[in-house]
Structure to design on (139 residues):
C-alpha cells in the first residue's frame, strides 16, 4: 500500500487512520496482486488487509474487480491480475470454495471443468500441462 492513509488522530500511543474508500481499496488490492506477481489466496488478501477493511467490503471490491475483468479468479480459488492465468500453475486444494462471481468463473473455466469432469481434475490437468511445458523448454 504505497499511498499513505489519512491520519485522523495521532498521539504517542495511537494512530487512527481513515478507512480507504471502495475505489482506493480496489487500487490497493490491484497493487497487492501486482507486487506479489502471482495469484493470491483469499486468506492472504484478508491477512494483508486486516485492520484496514472488513471481509464484506473486501469481498464486494473483489467481486467488482472480477466483474470488470481486472482481476481473475483462478480455478484453484486464488485471485490474480488479468493475464496471470496464462503462466500460473494452480495449487491442489483440499476443498474448493464457491466462486465469488460464478458466471465469470464458468465463462473462464467451465469448458475445462466439463472436459475433465470436475474442478479437481481440471486443476490436475493444468498442473500436468505446466509440467510438460517446463520439460519441453530447452534451457
Amino acid at each position: 500500500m504505497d499511498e499513505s492513509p489519512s491520519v485522523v488522530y495521532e498521539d504517542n500511543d495511537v494512530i487512527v487512520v481513515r478507512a480507504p474508500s471502495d475505489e482506493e481499496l480496489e487500487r490497493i488490492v490491484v497493487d497487492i496482486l501486482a507486487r506479489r506477481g502471482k495469484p493470491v489466496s483469499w486468506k492472504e488478501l484478508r491477512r494483508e488487509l486486516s485492520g484496514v477493511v472488513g471481509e464484506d467490503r473486501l469481498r464486494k471490491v473483489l467481486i467488482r474487480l472480477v466483474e470488470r475483468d481486472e482481476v481473475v479468479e483462478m480455478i484453484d480459488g486464488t485471485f490474480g491480475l488479468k493475464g496471470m492465468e496464462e503462466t500460473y500453475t494452480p495449487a491442489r486444494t483440499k476443498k474448493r470454495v464457491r466462486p465469488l462471481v460464478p458466471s465469470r468463473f464458468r465463462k473462464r473455466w467451465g469448458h475445462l471443468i466439463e472436459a475433465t469432469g470436475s474442478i479437481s481434475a481440471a486443476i490436475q490437468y493444468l498442473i500436468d500441462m505446466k509440467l510438460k511445458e517446463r520439460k519441453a523448454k530447452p534451457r
